[in-house]
Every structure is written in structure tokens, then in C-alpha cells.
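Hi L., both proteins are below.
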Amino acid sequence: MLPEIQKGASHTDLRGTLFFNNDFDASKIKRMFVIENKTTTIVRAWQGHKIEQRWVSALKGSFKIQLIAIDDWVLPSKGIEKNNFILHSNQLDVLHIPAGYVSSIQSLEEESKLLVMADYFLGEIEDEYRYAIDYFE
């Protein structure tokens, strides 16, 4: 399965703005949390999951998300192709990160907030993999 963005949209009238994503199926979500990087220079890389899948959406500001499909969880190949995505809070786009990927997350604006949703509860499975920030360069 490949990562994909499920497009959201917005509607503005005299009362304000409504952000929506009517095509996003949230039935698999078991937990969620928000990431707010301290500065735009911080990059949270490379962390991922062999089993767990996640969905992310920018609640405030914007984010650069890079994803890599891992070929070997013990000793992944270096120089693997990166899938690049930009998420903005001006519509409720949701990026699906399938199982089998590691991610790099960087906010592009100060005080940006990223909603992260996962299909497993914290501690339900042992499925966290981390690699050095320069491992895939």
C-alpha cells in the first residue's frame, strides 16, 4: 500500500470557515496526539512502524512530511527513495501512512500543529523503529 493524501476542503460564509474531509474513514483510529515542534529547524526523523499505520493532518500551519518504505527493518538499505508531502491547515487533508514506513516531520511555520492518528493503542504492540537522522542520506 502506498501513502496517499485524502483531500479535504473548506467552506467560508458570514459565520466563519468550516474545514471538512467527508471521505476520510476514521473507523480504525484508536488513539491520537498532536505534534508541535519547538522551531522550524527541528526535524523528527526517522521513526516508523512495521505493523501500525497512521494518518496525519495539519491543524495549524504547515508541515513537510517525508516517508520511506523500509525494505529490511534490521539493516535498511541506504539511499531509498523518499516520498515527499506538504500538508497545510487551510483544508483538512489527511495523509495516510501505511504500515511499513518511517517518517520525517518538519514544521514549515512557527507554532504549527500536526494531528497524528494511529490504529493501535499506546503499548498495545511493540512496533517502534528509529534510525539516525542522517541514516538514509
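That was the first. Here is the second:
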Amino acid sequence: MMKYMSPITVLIFSFISTLSQAQTLTVDYTWKRKHQCSTSSPELKVDGIPANTVELSITMIDHDMRSFNHGGGFVKNEAGFPSSYVLPEGALKSYKGPCPPNFASLGHDYEFIVVAKDKSNKELTKGSKKKTFSAKEVKE
């Protein structure tokens, strides 16, 4: 025998189902030695951009020195973005690159956070990627 579900229960299950299907951006980049203490941001690859996205807002944080402002920037496209987009190297204009004092040994962990926004500046989704910037990790 099938049990009756109230409209509120159906609404709650629907909401939970929608949340579990929420899209998350995939972010990737490659550190290069030339990015050390540079104002030229690395190339950023972003996948999973939802329809109706007209702005990608990007920030970088240093997990080992959170008080340092590395800046970031944004890229706008009023016509909308494709589901995959590559921000070219140097695209972020208010950016300060990684410059850890312990680059030769451990380095610091940096994270790029990308937020997709619609025309009303509403956040549609976001994603991030964290990587270490050190002499051991940077290959070129």
C-alpha cells in the first residue's frame, strides 16, 4: 500500500533533489615559475558554467597568509559564456601573484575561487582549485 505524502513533504523532497543536482564549476590552472611575484595571472580553465552566466568573478587566497590580498578580477560577457571557458594568462587586472618567502622549500597553498553570476548579479554557482606554489611543485 502506498503512503500519502503531504504537499509540504513533496516540496521538501523536491527542494533537496534540486540542491543535490546543483552544478559546481570545475577550475584548473598550472603554476609556472614566471608567476612568482608577478602581476600576470595564470591561465584559468573553467568548466560547468551554467546558462545565463554573464560574469565570472575570480579571487585568489593564500591559505598560509590569509591576510594578504592577492586580488583577482572579473570577466564579463553580456551574451553569456559557453559551458567551458579559458581565461588567458594575464586576464586578471588587479592580481598579485604568489610570492611565498619559503618558495625553495614548502611554499604556500593558493586557491582560485570562481563565481558565476547572472545579469542581476545573482550567484549561480562557484568552484575552486587549491594548489601549492613551491620550487618542488612548479615544473616550468
